[in-house]
Write a structure and sequence with these properties.
Metallo-beta-lactamase, Chain A; Rossmann fold; 2 domains; 7-stranded mixed sheet; binds flavin mononucleotide; RibonucZ/Hydroxyglut_hydro
């Protein structure tokens, strides 16, 4: 049966929820599921904007069929060729063989790479600013390269001022009946997932997101309809998510505070960061977060890194290298072009130290616009009373910097 909602007169959400898939891109855990959004416009001409993942293909096709009844589908607009949005494209072409497929040249290249050439005569290639006229609704195409993938386009519906934003402004988390951001307690239900989606999926492409925002915001957007998560239709929710994207894509921390990311095999490094966190609390630092990167999936810790201004890394040496789960976490941050933060480093070893040096290397050589606070510390196996003053000095330096 169909499961649809009108988002404006004659404009419908025809996507669906995936509660089943364990990991997005087979890597990032989905404790709250994910939605794949698609949209259908019924005008003098009909159009579907993007399709969905294979997991909800049946629901999506039922939705499209229900709305189109015995009308034909005139246009299939493709903004993004990642498979979580493309699994039903060929089905639509088979159901509506005359459909015109709208996309830029890169979209058609990727389409053929994934699906061969089932319908090369159906292509309508659009460039920057080109408009597809449906009657009342007019779909204008804008490139947003690397706002996740190189082919990404966004489509601006000029009459209702709806931005079909592809992966931009998307979030993990299913839509729970309420498909609009203003219908839910957004900060409780979606904010953490939105930050985790942004930082892990789009985080590397901050400058490209900034360019897209500069180009698109002057259009006077009155609704943002992304490919994942809720739709933003009120000035407040639009301003809110645009504000978050602006901060995230310019690598500005949302909060002055401390995130402690640590790793430990036998608990000695854990004991050290527990004492450090305690000392920071006694110096007035509030709302700290601590994550064992061996236990918590890095995608969650990456998201918290995007939020906080100050980060402490603490880990032992392992086979003359940095302990692997910390190495993986820092490598992940490096690949995401993480930057513009203040850091403290605490190593631990028993005979030949490597962890401290490697963590300092990440901070000073790989994370741009970043600063090491206090002395990088190195402990030998366990915390001794005589070293407490080193931890006190580090806590003083971090607290002073947070409060500055
Ligand atoms: C497999 C393995 C390899 C290790 N390699 C080194 C090493 O190369 N250099 C070193 O100084 N300590 C090495 N250590 C020792 C730990 O770094 C050290 O005992 C540390 O204090 C453990 O901290 P934790 O209690 O937080 O796990 C190794 C430990 C293990 C289990």
């Amino acid at each position: 049966m169909q499961c649809i909602q009108a988002i404006k007169k004659d404009v419908y959400w025809i996507g669906g929820n995936d509660f089943f898939t364990e990991r997005f891109e087979n890597m990032l855990p989905l404790p709250n599921g994910v939605s794949y959004n698609s949209y259908l416009i019924l005008d003098e001409k009909t159009a579907v904007i993007d399709s969905v993942d294979a997991s909800i293909r049946v629901q999506f096709l039922a939705n499209a069929k229900y709305l189109l009844q015995d009308r034909k589908l005139d246009y299939l607009v493709i903004n993004h060729m990642e498979p979580d949005h493309c699994a039903a494209l060929v089905d639509l072409v088979e159901m509506y063989p005359d459909v015109k497929i709208v996309g830029n040249a890169k979209i058609f290249t990727l389409f053929e790479q994934f699906y061969g050439k089932p319908c090369p005569d159906n292509y309508v290639t659009v460039g920057e600013g080109d408009v597809i006229d449906l009657g009342q609704h007019k779909l204008q195409s804008f490139k947003a390269p690397m706002v996740h993938w190189p082919e990404v386009t966004v489509t601006f519906e000029q009459t209702e001022k709806i931005l079909f934003s592809a992966d931009a402004f998307g979030t993990f988390g299913t839509l729970n009946g309420n498909i609009f951001a203003d219908e839910v307690d957004y900060d409780t239900v979606y904010l953490a997932d939105a930050r985790r989606y942004y930082s892990n999926i789009v985080g590397k492409f901050g400058p490209q997101v900034q360019l897209a925002l500069k180009k698109l915001l002057p259009l006077g957007i009155e609704m943002i309809a992304p490919l994942h998560g809720p739709i933003y239709r009120t000035p407040e929710t639009i301003q809110y998510i645009v504000g978050k994207y602006n901060a995230w894509s310019s690598y500005e921390p949302e909060k002055k505070g401390v995130l402690i990311a640590f790793a430990s095999m036998y608990g000695n490094t854990t004991a050290i960061v527990n004492v450090l966190a305690n000392k920071l609390a006694l110096r007035g630092i509030t709302d700290m977060r601590m994550f064992d990167v061996s236990k918590t999936h890095p995608s969650f810790v990456v998201a918290e890194a995007w939020k906080y201004s100050h980060l402490v890394f603490a880990a032992p040496t392992y086979n003359l290298n940095l302990y692997l789960t910390m190495e993986n976490f820092l490598h992940d941050l490096k690949c995401l072009h993480f930057q513009n933060r203040k850091f403290a480093v605490v190593g631990n070893h028993s005979w030949a130290s490597a962890a401290k040096k490697r963590m300092v290397e990440y901070v000073t050589e790989y994370f741009k616009k970043s600063e090491l606070i206090g002395d990088a510390l190195d402990f030998k196996s366990s915390l001794k009373a005589e070293q407490e003053k080193e931890l006190d000095a580090l806590a003083d330096a971090i607290a002073e910097s947070v409060k500055a």
